[in-house]
Specification:
Elements lengths: L1 E5 L5 H13 L4 E5 L6 H9 L6 E7 L4 H8 L3 E7 L7 H8 L8 E2 L5 H13 L3 H19 L4
Parallel strand pairs: 1-2, 1-3, 3-4, 4-5
Bound molecules: 5-O-phosphono-beta-D-ribofuranose.
Amino acid sequence: MIKIIMGSISDYEVMKEAEELLKFFEVAFTIEIISAHRTPDKMYEFAKGLANDDIVIAGAGGAAHLPGMVAALCPNLVIGVPVKSSNLSGLDSLLSIVQMPRGIGVATVAINGSKNAALLAVQALAISDEKLYKKVQKFREEQTAKVSEMSL
Ligand code: RP5
């Protein structure tokens, strides 16, 4: 199952794009607020309670520890979403997530890129789900058609 987590309710505006995309693909998911620095025990319990086939999408802003800490606590695929911060426009979030030291990988998308995080999670599930794979293909075709219809 795909598990969306985020550090604060203030991240939801960004993270709801991931939620919407997963609903579109009719993929099962959970969504909750877990903060690496404000609820570290909850983060630990969450990471230790994951099943082997769970994929985590973790959004956080500022000194964004959440994706890296969850990745350190479990061998699951973790996709980090750097949420745009007010002070440094998300550069702090991006660097905190993307610059993981070697040994623990966090797949990192663009600042506020939660839709792409959800797409990557769906593509990971599609590796063993041909029906979902075809849905991703159809999504791509429709996207291509929309651009072809664009005119100035
Ligand atoms: C991080 O601090 C959260 O991920 C959020 O992006 C940021 C600000 O949180 P709030 O002060 O809005 O709760 O932990």
